[in-house]
From TrEMBL:
PANTHER family: NCK-ASSOCIATED PROTEIN 1, NCK-ASSOCIATED PROTEIN 1-LIKE. This is NCK associated protein 1 like. Transmembrane segments: none annotated. Pfam families: Nckap1 (PF09735). It comes from the Eukaryota. It comes from Cyprinus carpio carpio. One of its GO terms (cellular component) is SCAR complex. One of its GO terms (biological process) is cortical actin cytoskeleton organization. InterPro entries: Nck-associated_protein-1 (IPR019137).
Amino acid sequence: MAYQFKLAEKLIILNDRGQGVLIRMNHIKKLCTDPKRRPPYFTDKSMESATKYINRKFPNVDIRGGSQHLSNIQKQKSAILEGLHSYYESFIDVMEFRDHVYELLNTIDASQCYFNIGVNFDFTKNYLDLIVTYASVIYMLSRMDDKKAIVGMYNCAYEFSNGNSDPSFPRLGQMFIEYDHPWKKLSEEFGPHTKSVTEALLSLLMVYPRRNLSADQWRNAQLLSLLASPAAMLSPACCDTMACEYLSLEAMERWILIGFLLCHSSLNTNANSQNLWKMALRNGLYITVIRDEVLNIHKLSEDFFDTCHSVKELRREKRNFLRNALKELIKVLEDEPALLGPKALFVFMALSFSRDEVLWLVRHAENIPKTKTPEDYADSQMAELFYYMEKLRTLLAQHRYVIQRYHLQYLSQYDALVLNDIIQGMYVCPEEESVLMSSFVSTLSAMSLKHLDAGEEFDLKPFRLDWLRLQAYTSVGKAPLALKDYPELAKVMNMAQFHTRMMDNVNELLCETADLSILCFHTRVFEKLFSQSSEDVSMQRYLTAFPVICSHFSQCLHPLCPEEAEDIENRSLKMSVNFLEEISRQTCMVVLEICAEQCNLHEKLLPKHSAETISTARNKKLKKSLPKKGDVPKEKPGTESLRKDRVIVTNLDKMHQALTELCASYSICADFTVFQHIIVPAEFLFSQLEIRLNKVIVQMANYNQSTHEIARPSDLLAGIQAYVTSLHSLSCYTNIDVTRLVKSVLLQQTQPLDSYGAQTITTLYTNWFLEGLLRQASSALIVHCPTKQCFVNQNTENEQSFHAEEYSDICGLRSLAELIGPFGLKFLNENLMWHIISQVGELKKLVSDNMDVLVQMRANYDNPEAMSDLQKKLTGSENVLKRMTIVGVILSFRSMIQDALEESMDRHCPFLMRPIKCLKDFIYSDGDIKVTLSVYEMASAAGLPCEIDPALVSAIANMQTDNSSIEEEFKITCLLLVFIAVSLPTLCLDPNSFYSREHGGHQNNIHCLATAVNHLAAAMFTVQRKNIQTQLHEFLKVASSILLQLGQNVERVEIKNRDSVYLLLHMIVEQSPFLSQDMLEMCFPYVLLRNSYREVHKTFIHTMG
């Protein structure tokens, strides 16, 4: 008969089904209590009357008598049927589950089954699980306020659509009414099952008291310690009740408390029942029903409420003990992984004990009772316990082969032999039982190391299911073979079952003993534990355990409730990412604080601080006045490294200690998976460092838009180099690619905006050079100095806010080229070109305004009388020269930064520069202009000077010309050169047109006209496909003729700075690749240039340092 009942199969199926139904009820309850996700029919005002009517009349809802209330349901019947169908079917699942549980429990009672957790462990465990699951489902059903409205509304819509009520509705309605007071009704139902339930629960007396010990008792027994008895270290860990050793304490408490709540009559008749009940009650205030749903067991049994006053201290001591015990266990197993074979049971015991303590703390912290000390339900050191649990899981995964190899030999060479001996010694063995036990021996004996080494996957689930079947067959009353009469058989089979699980079922066993997915539903407590641990410096090395735990949240999903998968996935990812971002933020903050400190120390060693030290040493040597007694002598760089006592801890020491702790947390795993999303903790640190480092670099630039102040490029470069040097030490703490980080950040700084849309130093320095330096250079407040290759301040009454030479000298521009690189300088050049084009546009307008006069001047440039008359008609000469000077200043600055870029490129990638130079040298400007410009563009990007500026050519070609033809543009360009040439004499009227030998240029920057004329003419004539040399030669003739006429007016004012202006012609020819000295001498006597140089050099005052 026992074979026909299929008790084992039904227990397994109903337990899984019941767990799914319970999860589904919990999900529906949460949906109905969340205003955002609640079915819309219960938030719609028009449905309010119908909902109240259904709740009042339930379950006898008359759709005819209540038509005035239910009219809206009739209108939306199709939508209601579709929207509430899944809810209705879920309640039918509860009803069907209840029917199957009734049937099975009655069958078990009728069969007079024997239950003992130490003998038929699986049979007893599944029986108790089913009882608790069933009670939990009914309890969750009673907690749903909207269940009557959902079922009633669905049935009304069904009746409106089909003309009759749903067949399942009467029974559903009756079930809802019966379980309005669930525990009372359940206790009535379980009256007939009291004997079986009590027998199963009382078998826990041999397990539960032994598991429910204090931390001191654990410590005295040296629980979980492999070092307690070195002689037995290699002996296999085994006992009579293997599976009971890692059985969840929380599960046992749930069995005891709910079991005796259902069968309370046993408490009055049996002293052992009462003792077991009291022992479980003393262990806490709440038990978990499902997920974050808890049951305040003391509200149901208030007689024992005052017994829990000391449990908080006991639990805290247990957690402290487990932290140390797990730490020791991990150290030993890491050193000797082979011990994972004989001592695997210790690992699962440690995980189970730790999980019990975590779950107790979580469910009580979420539901803190009224107490004066809520901190008793907090633990700032939970990170360490989480870390050790994850470490044990990692060790099991890493050494899976070691565990399998050991237990395979144990099963085939010991368990199979012992089991065979026991079977041979049996007096009575029915056929069915005999077949099962023979299969056990043959299965275990057939296992071989060859199968393992060949990589075959083992599947021993049939073995374990057959053992459960055998337990069911031999536990019924009047069984021919009673398992309780053969305790040795039960012991060996329970041990063999654990060994088989080590072969193919380790992951499922980990779910039983180490699953912390309940934390997904206690978000507030989980985040609070993380916050408390992150504030404790000693816990920071364990923080990564928090996000890793999120990778196990997928284990709480069930096929019966797929709707919650997306929500749990999003919640898991969000928590994991938030934890890692916070860890990375803290690490990044410490790293950058260390970098800032190192940068400050490095800044003290910069050459600019040496003057004071040199001055002090010189004064000391010359025996000048010593500093006063009150003056504190300035500390020399390096004094911070001197300390008299190593006990003295500096701020830098503390930061390095914090960095060591935080970086150690990244060692728990290189990556982990959360719902098929691979998460790499080090990448979060990389991302945070990238964001913060970009901000730090911009802050170091110290740009003030209102005052136009900014850090010198050389100072900023030194600071960044100090940061980078310090950052490279980070790779000593954790595995992070600092080179990739630095390259990424510095490359972003060469763009106008970084990857997050914030301004970079490229934008800041571009704005500063345009608005700060070049704008003042355009007004001649700052002078371009060819001799020093920089810009210098003019000696004026108004003191400048900065020294131009500090930013534009060779060192400053080289540093700028290093900082923003070719990409950044390209952006700067584009902005320079925009300013040049705006000036060219204005110049073209001036030419158009004087078109007729300039045409005549071009034809009569060698006729002094005609030129004199035409000169009076010309307007805007000074404006033309002013704008050309601005263009020249910008182009001179561009030339300087191009030189700096060339030096930088030569230093960093000479292998790239040599072929570019070679290619450029083989290209001639009179060849195919497209090919030439392509090569020049490449050369210009590398900083090489070109005969024709490709950037200027591109900018002029893109100018809006109002659809004018190339010939018209060519005419305007020629006349522009004539305009410049005939305007040169007006420069003599400006007293600042004096040539300074010291600067190698003029005081008003007119020497930049030479650069402007050459570059602008070359670019414009290239666009117009005209001969550059011919047109520049014409310009030279006109300019020479006009300037020679100055020599005939001896008494006029123009001759004051005539010699300085003459030099402009020589500069134009000298800088032009298209003009030669022979061409100049044909137009302008060289003797005049020689005399001009002599005159301007006469006035130079020599000073001796």
